[in-house]
Amino acid sequence: MNSIISNFNQAAFRNDLGALWENFLISERKKYLLFNKLSTQSYFWRTNQQQEIDYIEEFAGNISAYEFKWNPGTRKKITQTFVKNYSVSSSAVVTPDNFESFIQ
After folding, report:
1. What is the number of domains present in the chain?
2. Could you tell me if 26 and 44 are in contact, meaning their C-beta atoms sit under 8 angstroms apart?
């Protein structure tokens, strides 16, 4: 991708770092699920007011919601609008500090 868009800046100077982080996490999670033969449904969620959940996984009737944040210092919670409207079994904010538990 970097070659196509001619963006070879270091991570600290990129404006697409959040999107790259989300892409990495979802692709690694999909690899983990495939390797372990776990059949899940995955979704994302967004309201008209731009509230969103980056990744939702449904497995055996349980819903898990994940928010991905590259910068651990940013807002760290799952929107209550989603939690109030769906039966969420678990939720987590995934950052560089804790991502290994999400992809394993």
Report:
1. 1
2. no
